[in-house]
Amino acid sequence: MRGLDLTKQEDRAPGREREGVVYARELGRHLTWLDSFTGLALGVLAAASGIYTYLGVRSLLDDIGAWTTFAALSYSLAVSVGIFVFWSYMLRLLPAMRSAASRIGLMLSMALGSVAIVAMSSWLNAAALAGAAAVEQHLAHTTQSYQTALERAHSKTIAGQSLERDVARARETFQDLSAQEATGDLSGLAGRGAVFRVLTQKSDELAGLETQIAEQDSAVNDAFSQGNAILSRMRALTVEPGAVEDRSVRFAEEAVRLQGIISELRQLNVAPLVSRAAADLRDSVVLPDLDASSDTGRAAQQSTIDSVMGLLADRASTLEAAANEVQALPDSEEIEYTPLSAADAVIRYAGNFVPSWAGAIAIDLLPAVLVFVLMVTQAAIRQGMGAQSIEDRMTVSEMRAALEAARRLDLTDHHPDPTPPDDGEKEDRVLRAAE
After folding, report:
1. Does residue 363 share a domain with residue 335?
2. Contact 158, 332 (CB under 8 A)
3. What secondary structure does DSSP assign to 311-325, as a single string?
4. Engineering a disulfide at 129: which of 137, 171, 208, 356 sits with its beta carbon 3.0 to 4.6 angstroms away?
5. Of the candidates 408, 398, 397, 414, which has an alpha carbon nearest to the alpha carbon of residue 433?
6. How far apart, in whole angstroms, are the C-alpha atoms of residue 276 and residue 265?
7. Residue 13, by phi and psi: left (phi above 0), alpha (psi -120 to 50) or beta?
8. 288 secondary structure, DSSP code
9. 373 and 401 share a domain?
10. Do 230 and 336 lie in a common domain?
């Protein structure tokens, strides 16, 4: 039984080999048909990549003269030729490799070439595909940054304006005390004596500071309104139709104006002024001469002035602490608009344009897929052919040509030349007969 099974396996083996040969020849016919237009398709891909590369190069060059156009055309043509030649090499050589070492070596070469193609072409293709949109993205991002800086500067300035209430409370305190001193309820001496003059002096200082803060309200509101108006124009430039280069120039002009408004808002912040006024409130006191008629009255005035000085120190510390809290708020960032070219904008905001980058890289590296398809197909053909002799792989037409060559050799042998041919001449005769 075992011998019978082995015999059946031996009978089936030639059948499987014949099926493999048929399969391999079918794949070979498919490859022959596909190869008829593969070169044309590769040329179209290389030409398309060259066109987009040309557009990307033109976006990087400022001059619009004839030499600039010639330079951009030369670069794009070199890219197209390089892509076509490189992938032609890979399509022909890599599928034909049979050893693992040669395949790995060519694959490494293909990977290096792919990186070079991305470096010299794909990023320019992406600039041509999404360059204008990337520049608009840069404008929108810059507008948002300016808006944040304007709002932060305005908020800090408004916080400084709120110190007006603290100054008003301190002023009211000293005014009330001066009114009490005028009636004699504070030091016991009615009238406008030394204590009254000290209290009036500080209340007048605080009133002047309060008026100065209040006068800046309109300036702060006007500056913030102007900043918002500039931001509206900047947003309009971001989405306005037309060439993005022209819009970028107008956007830069508006950005300069807005930066001036932000600087003005920083200068309108009164927190540093209040902090200095608080220090003056405590340290700069002009003490009048005690004008009571008796020693007891002068002692009462001195005691009241000492109490007033302590109160001044407390109010000054309170105002200074409030002003320091305002100054401790985070400042708005220093923003400077930097115009970007389409290529630079595509690189900076690459994460927002993944489809464009994918398309730009795919148009250059799509032939790599064809290379792997050919490798798989060639491997399948070799497996189908197996280890066969030349007689097994000969087609009918090849066999007919071989028989005709043998017949011509026989005729030549029946009519020999006077001089016997050497081995080289015999080989030439065989080749001519085969032809």
Report:
1. no
2. no
3. HHHHHHHHHHHHHHH
4. 356
5. 408
6. 19
7. alpha
8. P
9. no
10. yes
pLDDT at 387: 47
147 CB-contact burial (10 Å; exposed 0-12 / middle 13-18 / buried 19+)? middle
- Amino acid identity at 177: L
By residue range, what is the domain housing residue 420? 394-434
The helix (run of H) or strand (run of E) holding residue 250 is helix 244-267
Name which of 143, 109, 362, 367 is nearest 258 in CA terms. Answer: 143
Residue 412's alpha-carbon distances to 401, 420, 426, in angstroms, are: 17, 12, 10
Please state, in angstroms and rounded to a whole number, the distance separating the CA atoms of residues 237 and 252: 10
Same domain, 303 and 418: no
In this structure, are 150 and 110 located in the same domain?
no
- Reported as type and span, the H/E element at residue 167 is helix 163-183
CB 105 within 8 A of CB 90: no
SS3 430: helix
SS3 2: helix
Q: Please tell me whether residues 284 and 294 are part of one structural domain.
A: yes
Give the residue carrying structure tokens 């401790």: 328
- Class of residue 334 by CB neighbours under 10 A (exposed 0-12, middle 13-18, buried 19+): exposed
DSSP 3-state of 128: helix
- Tell me the chain's radius of gyration from C-alpha atoms: 47
pLDDT at 229: 93
CATH for 164: 1.20.1260
d(CA 181, CA 199): 9
* Integer Cα distance of 72 and 58 in angstroms: 6
Read off the tokens for 330: 């985070």
> HSE-up of 374 (CA within 13 Å, CB side)?
23
Q: Greatest CA separation found in the chain? A: 165
Q: Which of the residues in the chain have pLDDT under 50?
A: 1-13, 286, 289, 387, 389, 423, 426-427, 430-431, 433-435
Contacts with 232 (C-beta within 8 Å, 6 or more apart), sequence order? none
Residues 167 and 58 in one domain: no
Q: Is 273 exposed, middle or buried (0-12, 13-18, 19+ CB in 10 A)?
A: middle
Query: Does residue 221 contact residue 268 with C-beta atoms inside 8 Å?
Result: no
Domain for residue 345, yes or no?
no
Please count the structural domains in the chain.
Answer: 3
DSSP state of 186: S
Looking at residue 185, its pLDDT comes to 56
**Shared-domain flag, residues 105 and 145:** no
Quick check: pTM over 0.70? no
